[in-house]
């Protein structure tokens, strides 16, 4: 089990409730911020997809932070249609990068959380501090005004998603020429399909240096 700790952080609309998941090893290789689905439809930081993303990042060696958006759980304030939520994620980003200086920052989100993270990524890039990489599950195409995303973004979507139809995601991605991983038979919440999220992110996250190290080890063994 990965270690975790609860925290509270001052946001623009009051205190924010959050949790940090630590990697098994003491020294993290990066920071990951995870954003949950829509607060007005039951979305919380304990949503199963958000937790799956958090645990996956932790297994990859990242220290992971997630918060309850405004009005959810013990977080103060009221829903702000993604605008204030993006501000709050930016505050979380600043806080985590101060706690863990010098580490790359990955962004993960599910549903409404993908909208927030696309906007945060856009903001970070404009500030000259781009995110290391994005993982977007159940991207909120046509539900909200998703920002364009980096070409190396990992996108995962359910074939049978009736909340955000796959065709809407394809229409959003087509001008950007970015592929998406489609999980056959998966609905919006990936019922009984959560393992595919972990497996694909883990498989695709490997850095070139990791591959080089593996090849060196293989050569040495030969």
Helix content: 25-40%
Q: Beta-strand percentage? A: 15-25%
Radius of gyration: 17 Å
Q: Which sequence of SSEs, written as H and E, runs from N to C?
A: EEEHEHEHEEHEHH
Number of strands: 8
* Adjacency order of strands in the biggest sheet: 1-2-4-3-5-6-7-8
Name of the CATH homologous superfamily: Alpha/Beta hydrolase fold, catalytic domain
| C-alpha termini separation | 35 Å
Shape: globular
How many independent structural domains?
Answer: 1
Major sheet size, sense and barrel closure = 8 strands, mixed
Instruction: Summarize model confidence as the mean pLDDT.
Output: 92
Number of helices: 6
The CATH topology assignment is Rossmann fold
Structural class: alpha/beta
Query: Uncertain regions: pLDDT < 50 for 5+ in a row?
Result: 211-222
Class, according to the CATH hierarchy? Alpha Beta
- Judging by the overall fold, what is the CATH architecture? 3-Layer(aba) Sandwich
Walk me through what this model shows.
By secondary structure, the protein is α/β, with parallel strands linked by helices. It has one domain (4-221): Alpha/Beta hydrolase fold, catalytic domain (Rossmann fold), CATH 3.40.50. It is 35% helix and 21% strand. The protein has an eight-stranded mixed sheet with strand order 1-2-4-3-5-6-7-8, sandwiched between helices. Strand 7 (154-158), helix 4 (166-173) and strand 8 (181-183) form a beta-alpha-beta unit. Helix 1 packs parallel to helix 5.
Write a short abstract of this structure:
This protein is of the alpha/beta class.
């Amino acid at each position: 089990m990965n270690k975790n700790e609860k925290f509270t952080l001052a946001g623009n609309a009051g205190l924010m409730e959050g949790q940090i998941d630590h990697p098994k090893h003491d020294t993290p290789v990066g920071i990951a911020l995870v954003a949950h689905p829509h607060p007005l439809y039951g979305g919380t930081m304990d949503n199963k997809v958000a937790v799956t993303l958090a645990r996956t990042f932790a297994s990859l060696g990242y220290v992971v932070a997630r918060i309850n958006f405004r009005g959810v759980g013990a977080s103060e304030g009221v829903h702000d249609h993604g605008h204030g939520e993006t501000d709050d994620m930016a505050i979380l980003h600043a806080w985590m990068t101060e706690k863990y200086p010098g580490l790359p920052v990955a962004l993960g989100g599910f549903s409404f959380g993908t909208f927030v993270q696309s906007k945060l990524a856009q903001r970070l890039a404009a500030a000259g501090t781009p995110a290391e990489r994005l993982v977007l599950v159940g991207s909120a195409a046509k539900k909200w005004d998703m920002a364009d995303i980096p070409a190396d973004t990992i996108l995962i979507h359910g074939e049978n998603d009736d909340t955000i139809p796959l065709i809407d995601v394809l229409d959003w991605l087509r001008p950007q020429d970015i592929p998406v991983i489609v999980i056959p038979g998966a609905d919006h919440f990936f019922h009984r399909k959560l393992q595919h999220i972990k497996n694909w992110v883990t498989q695709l996250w490997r850095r070139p240096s990791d591959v080089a190290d593996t090849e060196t080890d293989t050569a040495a063994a030969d």
